[in-house]
Here is the input.
Amino acid sequence: MTRLILAAFLGLIPAPVAAQDATLSPSAVQSADPAAASAVAVVEGFHAALKSGDGDAALAFLADDVVVLEGGGAERSRDEYAHHHLPADMTFAAATTAEVTRRAAWVEGDLAWVLTEGRTTGEFNGRAVNSVSAETMILQRGPHGWRIRHVHWSSRTPR
Here is the structure.
């Protein structure tokens, strides 16, 4: 399994086939396994819950032991995320507009990877926001469907 993950991230395995995602323009979709559509829907649901300020709904998409990596820090459970960055993430999502510019997703057994690139604009805490972002989410399928087990967010100023 470790080799498969490493190979995927090094680009040694073939790209999955295109996903169907109504929020993306055809040029934004890089690739996705059609079997990953339900996992992508979970990622989109999580973001929609953040944007609407529905913390309970956002948390319902996360596994109890989710690990969220952002800005060099880590939150190592759903409860830790709920009590630290969730409120700020909801406020930020509500104040800004996020556009998905590219997404790739695929499934291997009960694991799914959803890799998203995007651009975020708007104003937050009195400052203009204009950034490009990268997001990796790893999901696991269980008795209650897909749950997000890992999130890694990074962003930078556009070049």
Observations:
- The chain is about 30% helix and 45% strand.
- The chain has a mean pLDDT of 86.
- The CA atoms of residues 14 and 63 lie 29 Å apart.
- The longest strand covers residues 127-142.
